[in-house]
Design goal:
Length: 312
């Protein structure tokens, strides 16, 4: 049954029901040929997307911009706040008010957790959260779910290992919640100082999922259907020494993957640093570059539903 997403903010994956997520994922499948330019549309002709990136980004920013262009719209915005009036002391609220008056929707990435929800309070046009500190990254979560669904044909029942920086990693916070909603089995693998926050674990339990927490990747990978690796996020650490103690704690390479199932898929939100060896790229396990592409049809689906109010 059609659902109404017109003018809706995309702040947190928690704002969506399971049925709404399924609806978006199904529509994203329809958007793949448009994302590949095999089909064309002018659905969002004359509409403008503002991309406000207060933190560095490659995939999120470029895929949102590409998605808008593929839908026939246009893009304004910045990738470096040092070249804006923020350098003069302009408040986030005033920056949002200005972008609101120039565009039909706003994507914001910001180092402060909660910045996207705050932005929504000052904007009349829809706000899409492109990542807020160590908080949420809902569109990344949706493309991750889409990747698992397309590669494994289902989400429910998969054994998913989340690896790396589980304390500061906003992608795994959103994903753990969503995977629990779909009844996947979760194992959290991290150094002791980067364990998944208790509030995230408790949310998983509320959906009847009992995550296993461990530091032993070799044991966890043997039964995994999905390995979701993340980098240790240096920019989130208050202490450089703490970062130096944990960086390189895990490395996914071909030797490790010999212990895994043949149909294991390896995912990563990228950028990777040292946690996945380049030799993995040529294996059937590696889907992280497909995963990055999947951001395009997923974000096209969201923009067309929010701004167009309908499917193509």
């Amino acid at each position: 049954m059609p659902m109404n997403f017109k003018h809706r903010d995309i702040i947190s994956i928690k704002d969506f029901s399971k049925e709404e997520i399924e609806y978006i994922l199904e529509y994203a499948k329809h958007m793949v040929p448009y994302a590949k330019a095999e089909k064309h549309t002018t659905l969002l002709n004359q509409q403008i997307l503002a991309t406000l990136f207060f933190e560095p980004s490659t995939r999120t920013r470029l895929s949102f911009e590409s998605a808008m262009h593929r839908l026939g719209g246009s893009v304004i915005g910045f990738a470096d706040p040092s070249g804006t009036s923020l350098k003069k002391g302009e408040s986030l609220a005033d920056t949002i008010r200005m972008a609101d008056s120039y565009s039909d929707a706003i994507v914001i990435r910001h180092p402060q957790e909660g910045a996207a929800r705050l932005a929504a309070e000052f904007s009349e046009v829809p706000i899409l959260n492109g990542g807020d500190g160590a908080g949420q990254h809902p569109t990344q979560c949706l493309l991750d779910l889409f990747t698992i669904l397309t590669e494994k044909k289902k989400i429910k029942g998969n054994n998913v290992v989340l690896l790396g920086d589980l304390k500061y990693g906003r992608t795994v916070h959103s994903l753990a919640y969503a995977l629990s909603l779909f009844k996947a089995n979760l194992t959290f693998v991290s150094p002791e100082t980067l364990k998944m926050p208790k509030e995230v674990i408790n949310e998983c339990k509320e959906f009847g999922v009992e995550p296993v927490s461990t530091s032993n990747l070799e044991k966890a990978i043997k039964e995994a259907d999905v390995l979701y690796a993340t980098r240790i996020q240096k920019e989130r650490f208050p202490d450089a020494e703490e970062y130096n103690r944990v960086v390189g704690s895990y490395k996914v390479d071909n030797a490790l993957l010999q212990q895994a199932k043949q149909d294991l898929i390896v995912m990563h939100p990228l950028p990777r640093i040292v946690e996945i060896h380049s030799e993995v790229d040529s294996t059937a396990h590696a889907v992280y570059f497909k995963q990055a592409f999947n951001g395009l049809p997923v974000r096209m689906a969201l923009l067309s539903l929010i701004l167009g109010g309908k499917k193509i």
